[in-house]
Amino acid sequence: MTMDLFTLDAEVRTDMGKGASRRLRHANKVPAIVYGAGKEPVSITLAHNKVFRAQEEEAFYSHVLTLNVGKEAVEVVIKDMQRHPFKPQIMHMDFLRVDAKKELHTNVPLHFINEDVVAKTGAVIAHSANEIEVACLPANLPEFIEVDVKDLEVGQTIHLSDIALPKGVTSVELAKGEDHDQAVVTASAPKVSSDDDDAAEEASSEETTEE
């Protein structure tokens, strides 16, 4: 992903209300709000084509972004994005200001590696989570966290506490206590297909008849 997708030009929005939002969307603009860091919320608009291109990249959701609002460059992370139910359209975005010296909480995607190794053993991999909430300084925010499942055996589960987090990054859930050590991925035995069940039943029936 190129760095320019982490930078978005924005304009301060003064025309408020649902009618104004509809007009903005018709003009290929995305209404948004910037809040946090002890400052007043600011309503802004963004170019839809730039936002839509950027949001196709996974890293866009777990990266510190720069909003150029007038002459000010504001560092933010995405907190919410509303999409049209069936059109390829971004309806609204919420951005949270970040302070380089203050810890932030945000979700980071998980990348599962070596699943093919486990699949060769016949195990079925089931994900309980595809992202986790982390706490860290903005400079330490990872784009993703790898979860290596190569040693996972049937019946075993990888929990939050089993994941090696980057330096300076902690799990928000684990910080709440041991009872928040959630399952992330599990290896299960393959399910017997209905054809196999039918075959087993027929074999059992034939054995009973012969007796």
Automatic annotation (TrEMBL):
The UniProt entry, under InterPro entries, shows: Rbsml_bL25/Gln-tRNA_synth_N, Ribosomal_bL25/Gln-tRNA_synth, Ribosomal_bL25_b-dom, Ribosomal_bL25_C, Ribosomal_bL25_long, Ribosomal_bL25_short, Ribosomal_L25_dom, Ribosomal_uL5_bac-type
**Keywords annotated in UniProt:** Ribonucleoprotein, Ribosomal protein, RNA-binding, rRNA-binding
**Pfam families named among the record's database cross-references:** Ribosomal_L25p, Ribosomal_TL5_C
Stretches assigned to the Large ribosomal subunit protein bL25 L25 domain: 8-95
- Disordered: where is this region? 179-211
The answer to whether the entry has keyword Calcium is no
**CDD domains linked to this entry:** Ribosomal_L25_TL5_CTC
Large ribosomal subunit protein bL25 beta domain residues are 104-191
GO BP annotation list: translation
Acidic residues bias located where? 195-211
Q: Which domain of life is it from?
A: Bacteria
Q: Which GO terms describe its cellular component?
A: cytosolic large ribosomal subunit
Subunit structure, as described in the record: Part of the 50S ribosomal subunit; part of the 5S rRNA/L5/L18/L25 subcomplex. Contacts the 5S rRNA. Binds to the 5S rRNA independently of L5 and L18.
Q: Which family does it belong to?
A: Belongs to the bacterial ribosomal protein bL25 family. CTC subfamily.
Return the protein name: Large ribosomal subunit protein bL25
Q: Which organism is it from?
A: Thalassotalea litorea
